[in-house]
Amino acid sequence: MKALITGGSSGIGLSFAKALSKMGYDIILVARDEKKLKEAKNIIGNHTETIAMDISIEKNCKKLYEQLKDDDINILVNSAGFGLHGKFLEDDLDMQMRMIDLNIKATQILTKLFLQKMKEENKGYILNIASTAAFSPGPLMASYFATKAYILRLTEAISEEIRHENSNVYVGCLCPGPVDTHFNDTLGVKFSKAQNSDKLAHYALKKMFQRKTVIIPTVNHKMNAFFNKFVPLKILLNANYNVQVKKIENAKKK
Questions:
Q1: Torsional class of 80: left (φ above 0), alpha (ψ -120 to 50), beta (otherwise)
Q2: Closest C-alpha among 211, 76, 228, 32 to residue 145
Q3: pLDDT value at position 211?
Q4: Are 74 and 124 in contact (CB under 8 A)?
Q5: Which letter does DSSP use for residue 47 in this model?
Q6: Looking at the DSSP assignment, which residues form a beta bridge with residue 170?
Q7: Could you report how far apart the first and last alpha carbons of the chain are, in Å?
Q8: Which CATH architecture has domain 2-253?
C-alpha cells in the first residue's frame, strides 16, 4: 500500500505522511525543497520515497503521474498550496498566478489522472485539502479564498459523480480552519486558536476512511460554515474584511 502526498515536506502534508506511515503505508512525498524532503524522510523513517518537483508547473504534474502510474497508489493527498494576504491590487500578479497554478491546477490535474486509474481498479482514496475559507469570500485574501472554494466545489461534484457510478473510489475534501504550520509564517499572520496539524491529520483520515465527503474538524468551524449560508452577503463581506484587518494589525504588533 502506498500513499502519495504533495506538499509533504512540512505542515499538514508531513502530518498526513507520519500518520499514514504508522498505519503501514509506504510514503511518497512530493515538494520543491529537496533539503526539507530529506528532513521529512528522516522524521518518517523507512519506506519513504521523496520526489523534488515543482508541481505548480503543469508539465511536472503530468510527469509525476507518468512516473508513478504503475505504482500501487492507494491514497492521494493533495496538500500542496500556499496563501497570500493583502489587497488584491497590491499582491504581486505572478505570485497570484503561481498560487492558482499550485492550489487549483495541480490539484485538478493530479485528481483527474489518478482518479482515472483508481476508477479502473475500483479502489483508492483521494483527499483534497481546501479550507474553511472555501465557505465565504475573503477580502484581503481574495485569491486564496477563491482557490479553496474552487477545490471544495470541484471535489463535491466529483464525489457525486463517482457515487452515481457505484464506484468504491473515495474523493473527499478537508476544510480546516487555521493550522499551526509554517503556512501562517508565509502569510505573516498569527492565529490564537490554530489547530495542531498532527491531530488534524488523524481526524481527517478517520473521517476519510468513513467516506465523509466534506471534512470540517471543529464544531465552531462546522457552525460557521453552516451559518455562512444564511448571512447576507454584505454583512459577511464586511465581517471577513474586519477579521483580516485585525490579523494584519496583530501581526505587526509581534
A1: beta
A2: 228
A3: 98
A4: yes
A5: S
A6: 125
A7: 45
A8: 3-Layer(aba) Sandwich (3.40)
**Residue position matching grid coordinates 462546522:** 222
Q: Which run of H or E residues covers position 74?
A: strand 73-78
The dihedral through the CA atoms of 126, 127, 129, 131 has a sign that is: positive
Task: Name the average pLDDT for the chain.
Answer: 94
Cα-Cα-Cα-Cα dihedral of 92, 144, 196, 194, to 10°? 80
Bridge partners (DSSP) listed for residue 127 = 77, 172
| pLDDT for the residue 183 | 53
The Cα-based distances of 24 to 1, 3, 93, 118, 198 in angstroms read 8, 10, 42, 20, 17
User: CA-based angle 73:212:146, to the nearest 5?
Assistant: 85
Q: What is the DSSP string of 170-181?
A: EEEEE----BSS
Ramachandran angles phi, psi of 29, nearest 5°: -105, 135
User: Residue 29 burial (CB < 10 Å; 0-12/13-18/19+)?
Assistant: buried
Q: Residue type for 181, please?
A: T
For residue 219, the 8-state DSSP code is H
Give catalytic residues, as residue numbers.
Answer: 144
Name the pTM for this structure. 0.92
Is-contact 15 197, C-beta < 8 A? yes
Beta-carbon contacts of 98 under 8 Å, excluding residues fewer than 6 positions away, are: 56
